[in-house]
Amino acid sequence: MKSIGFLSFGHWSDSPHSATRSASDVLHQSIELAEAVEDLGGDGAYYRVHHFAQQLASPFPLLAAVGARTSRIEIGTGVIDMRYENPLYMAEDAGAADLISGGRLQLGISRGSPEQVIEGYRYFGHVPPEGTTDADMARQHTEVFLEVIQGKGFAQPNPRPMFPNPPGLLPIEPQSPGLRDRIWWGAGSRATAEWTAQQGLNLMSSTLLTEDTGVPFHQLQAEQIQIFRKAWAEAGHEREPRVSVSRSIFALTNDLDRAYFGRGGQDQDQVGHIDGGVARFGRTYADEPDKLVEQLAEDEAIAAADTLLITVPNQLGVDYNAHVIESILTHVAPGLGWR
């Protein structure tokens, strides 16, 4: 059985064609979609994080609210840009949100994606130390975050505290046991996937890779996953790792589906440029359910992953996006052995 959830980019706009006209709309509908997908038998609700844009940004209030309104599904991000984060404050937020959800948080983090503004992390008060890059800073923030969510004491207690302290250095509170095993790194290349395994982080691979070897996207992504698993075994970690991939998949089951996506998907990958380098983007799948089963059966990366995140067009509203997920769960997943 493959875990199947949704990934929402959380867009809003004042367009008359958008069902999300404000940030309030997006936040409330994000919670409602998670509830709907849980009722349908889906497995996860994941949200993108983008700063300085009309999209979801600060994830923890939303994750906590979803955790309070659901009882079973995994709740996560794809991904939090660690260049922007104070890792200690983030650890407090993550611990609290995980406790509210009963240990269902699955946090995707990374160096981040292309930004709306130049070096936006500087506006948040984060500047790479001299001689280092923003990517170095993201990994340093990550190192601190991973240490403190495991209860590492580091703060010297006040000898005359307001409340009694336990002996020794004090850790961040609250702690949520097991959270360290539920942190994922959004890796955009094969080399980063190897690093991810060495750190003992789960692998989150998106609909693009920041490299291109000329092979189809799904094969390059499957190679990335293979490298990750090999590096994980070589590192000697005790637990089994998790791997997720994201895809845009639309089963055409009614007239509305055909009106939105009836022209079919992008049958071929796309090659473009991101941050000055070549990137390969995965295709979009849109077809009748039986044809989707045939096409998805050939996707080597989906086969290699334990978790599939379906990217949803959130501006089309809760009802339609719940239908998108239900169609995949009902008409596509059984034919592929995912259900």
Which consecutive residue ranges, at least 5 long each, have pLDDT under 50? none
User: Structural class, from secondary structure content?
Assistant: alpha/beta
Please give the share of residues in helix: 25-40%
Supply the CATH superfamily name.
Answer: Luciferase-like domain
Task: Please state how the strands of the largest beta sheet are arranged side by side.
Answer: 1-2-3-5-6-7-9-13
Mean pLDDT across residues: 93
Strand content: 15-25%
Main beta sheet strand tally, sense and closure = 8 strands, parallel, barrel
Run of helices and strands: EHEHEEHEHEHEEHEHEEEHHEH
Please describe what this structure looks like.
- The protein has 339 residues and is of the alpha/beta class.
- It has one domain (3-336): TIM Barrel.
- It has 10 helices and 13 strands.
- It has helices spanning 23-40, 59-69, 87-101, 134-148, 190-198, 217-235, 255-261, 289-296, 300-304, 318-332, and strands spanning 3-8, 44-47, 74-77, 80-81, 105-110, 183-186, 202-205, 208-209, 243-251, 270-274, 277-281, 284-287, 307-312.
- The chain has an 8-stranded parallel β-barrel with strand order 1-2-3-5-6-7-9-13, surrounded by 7 helices. A 3-stranded antiparallel sheet has the order 8-11-10, covered by helices on one side.
- Strand 1 (3-8), helix 1 and strand 2 form a beta-alpha-beta unit.
- Helix 3 packs across helix 4 (134-148).
- The N and C termini lie close together (5 Å).
